[in-house]
Write a structure and sequence with these properties.
Transmembrane segments: 12-30, 64-81, 93-117, 274-293, 300-321, 333-354
Keywords: Cell membrane, Membrane, Transmembrane, Transmembrane helix
Oligomer: single chain
Number of helices: 11
GO cellular component, one term: ATP-binding cassette (ABC) transporter complex
Protein name: Permease YjgP/YjgQ family protein
InterPro entries: LptG, LptG/LptF_permease
Structural class: alpha+beta
Distance between the termini: 30 Å
Mean pLDDT: 84
Order of helices and strands: HHHHHEEEEEEEHHHHHH
């Protein structure tokens, strides 16, 4: 690799990581402020809040990486242009295409890092964070095993085979124990729906009651079940589609399709997971026409502000097209890729305009 490639790549990479670190510190601070109000609820203490914020950092890295790439590249290129280093490189024969190739190499490394974090680090870390908070605040312990989701509610243990996206439950088993830790009853239900606060309606129920050394079996079409378990607790024991790994998204989408349920939301989330790491490539292309031009010192701050605005717009469009695609049943690939395509077209047009000048 030529000397200028190493130099420009090092400058851009350093600026991106510095911006990412600054964003992480800012978001961790605001996350911590949000968690302070929960301290004191149940057994939730200050050190639990710190652990919750730390466990959410991999997810924040995944979210913020494209914005950090944009702002970091803008800052690095603006600094090089202000010191006339870009001018020297151009006089030496470096074209915009050559500079863009260097930026793509840096963005490619960061894209791989983003993918690995989003696939292997962020999902389990996010799940652990919310399970920790739920356990300490409510005293309920949830764990997702091959046999389904297990939750402890006082002296009851609840096993749920499937939690649907609307928080309805399927394949429910409730084991109730007495004060001496002896099994008192076991209730099985085909499906459960949350109807009123602290109450579920169970359907196709078979209940086995153990009394005096004998077992009595009762079957009823439906029954009310009161429990501290609620949809909010179930939501934090699960990972949202945007936080799920590609493997889990694929498996869950297949499960929904096999049961003739709508999969559009999860299909969009799948393609977003595929495309989102590549957003860094679009961002460096977008930064080139802004950052590569010579500017005075005060111009750097303006470019950084523009970068923040563009990054915010990209984040908002990602969410907007995902929701519009789910509502209007658009193509999942098109819904996930449209923001990146729009920004890539804008970057191409701006590079062409700068070169024409």
């Amino acid at each position: 690799m030529k000397l200028y490639r190493r130099y420009v790549g090092r400058e851009v990479m350093g600026a991106v990581l510095l911006v990412l670190l600054g964003f992480l510190a800012l978001f961790a601070f605001f996350d911590m402020l949000g968690e302070i109000r929960n301290v004191g609820q149940g057994g939730y203490q200050l050190h639990h809040a710190f652990a919750f914020v730390l466990l959410r950092i991999p997810g924040r890295v995944y979210e913020l990486m494209p914005i950090a790439v944009l702002i970091g590249t803008l800052y690095a290129l603006s600094t090089l242009a202000r010191h006339s280093e870009i001018t020297v490189l151009r006089v030496s024969g470096l074209s915009s295409g050559g500079l863009l190739t260097v930026l793509f190499q840096v963005a490619g490394v960061l894209a791989v890092l983003t993918f690995l974090i989003g696939e292997y680090v962020a999902p389990p870390s996010e799940r652990a964070a919310f399970q920790l908070r739920s356990k300490e605040r409510t005293g309920m312990v949830g764990q997702d095993l091959r046999s389904g989701l297990w939750v402890k509610d006082e002296r009851s243990f609840i096993n749920v085979r499937i939690v649907l996206p609307d928080t309805r439950l399927r394949g429910i088993r409730i084991f109730e124990f007495d004060e001496d830790a002896k099994l008192r009853s076991m209730t099985e239900a085909a499906e459960g729906e949350y109807v009123v606060p602290d109450s579920w309606r169970l359907t196709n129920v078979v209940q086995t009651v153990l009394e005096g050394g004998r077992a009595e079996v009762r079957s009823v079409p439906d029954m009310q079940w009161r429990s501290a378990l609620n949809p909010d607790i179930l939501a934090v024991l699960l990972v949202s589609p945007d936080r799920m790994s590609l493997r889990h998204l694929s498996a869950y989408t297949k499960h929904l399709a096999d049961n003739h349920q709508t999969t559009n939301r999860y299909d969009i989330a799948f393609w977003k997971k595929v495309i989102y790491p590549l957003a860094g490539l679009v961002m460096v292309a977008l930064a080139l026409p802004f950052g590569g031009a010579h500017s005075r010192v005060e111009g750097v701050g303006l470019k950084i502000f523009v970068g923040v605005m563009i990054g915010t717009l990209f984040h908002m469009l990602n969410g907007l097209f995902s929701n519009l695609g789910a509502i209007n049943h658009w193509s999942p690939l098109l819904s996930a890729a449209t923001p990146s395509i729009l920004f890539l077209l804008a970057a191409t047009a701006m590079i062409w305009w700068v070169e024409k000048r």
